[in-house]
Amino acid sequence: MSRNHSSFLFTAVLLLFSQAIQAQSPVVPKLIWTVNKVDLGTVFEEQGTQYATYEFTHTQDSLFYIEDVWSDCGCTTVDFTKDTLQVGEKGQLKVAFDPVSAAGYFNRMIVVKGNLQDTQDTLFLEGIAIPYPEVPEKAYPVVKENVGFRLPKLNMGEVFTNEPKIKMLEFYNFGSSNLYADSLIFNSPEFIQVSQVQEFIRPQERGLLQVVYDGKLKNDLGFFEDYFAVAWDSTSVIPVSVVAEVFEYFPPFSKDELNVVPQLNLGNKEIDLKEISSKSIQNRVVSITNKGQQILEIRKIQGNCDCLQLEIAKTSINPGESIDLKITFDPSGRKGIDQRNIYLFSNDPVNPVQLFILKSRIE
Question: For the chain, how many structural domains are there in total?
Fold first, then answer.
């Protein structure tokens, strides 16, 4: 190989190596945004234009200014800092959103272009826009003390013990007085907290109550219906029903731990009693086995009827051990095809809730 050829190869390799090093170097953004996405939450049409503010810091040595800003929807308008910024100086954009233009979930994109090369950032604005109802009486049929609700109960859905569940309860002010947040009082169990989102709700306008359900403070597992009550200066006490399914939270674990953690195994997940008399009390036994390598804890056993009696000798089951679940079913007052559900809550992280079914045809 000639000397010139070797020199050429060396230079080429050095160039490629240099490019690879540069590619691995972290790219310092020219603008540091405090947030690049704002969630407006639930926005009612009658609340008018909503605003979101995005703040940034200029990090480069060169002078910076915003050349242009555009969005993917005419429903948003943007006002922004037009000054030229030195390194370390801050600027902001203020985005206005008109909820009349949307219905349901929305996600808007705002693109910011600066004077420096490669300065083009994308911001996001999201939320839920709810149009004003044509007939409020139909949209909010559950009326209590001139306050209307869409449904008779607030469904929290699944609530886990690791963090509180938050849900918004929408309501309509059919009264003639403003409903002020600072005049709201509520009475509830300690695991339910209630607050009004808007500062005040005018007559013929809608509002939101933020309901926080703490599964850990509930200190129980399964399906529940609870109640809280709210009132404003201009109303009497309004009862509200809340339904929820509370489950124990288990953190993720590796595949290697799959056979180590507690494992609840039911010898049978269904018993068919076939035809029975309504005067004949039924007794059955189901085997519960721990197939894991750690102690299995039975947190709770819950039936879907007072006609069931459920008994176990102990709630801690050693690895490889089996115990009997004794089931007593009283079919008095029942007739026809019948199904009873029995739920077992345990510290089995793979199947923390298991269902056992007891079927019959009652004559």
Answer: 3
Kindly state the DSSP code that residue 24 receives in the 8-state scheme.
Answer: H
Q: Provide the 10 A C-beta neighbour count for residue 360.
A: 20
Residue 1 lies in a domain: no
- Among the ranges given (33-42, 56-65, 218-227), the one the predictor scored with the smallest mean pLDDT: 56-65
Cα angle 213, 219, 223 (rounded to 5 degrees) comes to 65
Query: Domain for residue 15, yes or no?
Result: no
Tokens linked to 261: 């953690």
184: which 2 tokens? 């709201």
Residue 269: is its pLDDT beyond 70? yes
Q: Is 20 helix (H, G, I), strand (E, B) or coil?
A: helix
Cβ neighbour number for residue 230 with a 10 Å cutoff: 23
**Average pLDDT of the segment spanning 224-248:** 95
Are residues 119 and 222 both part of a single domain?
Answer: no
What domain range is 141 assigned to? 136-247
**Alpha-carbon 306 to chain mean position:** 32
37-46, 182-191, 252-261 — most confident range: 182-191
18: Cβ contacts below 8 Å, ≥ 6 apart: none
Per-residue exposure over 187-206, b if at least 16 CB sit within 10 Å of its own CB, e if not: ebeebbbbebebebbeeebb
Where is 6: in which H helix or E strand? helix 3-24
Percent helix, strand, coil in the chain, to 5, is 10, 50, 35
Report CA-CA distances (Å) from 247 to 158, 193, 346: 7, 19, 10
Cα 25 from chain centre: 38
With cut-offs at 50, 70 and 90, classify the pLDDT of residue 29.
low
For residue 83, what are its two tokens?
């000054």
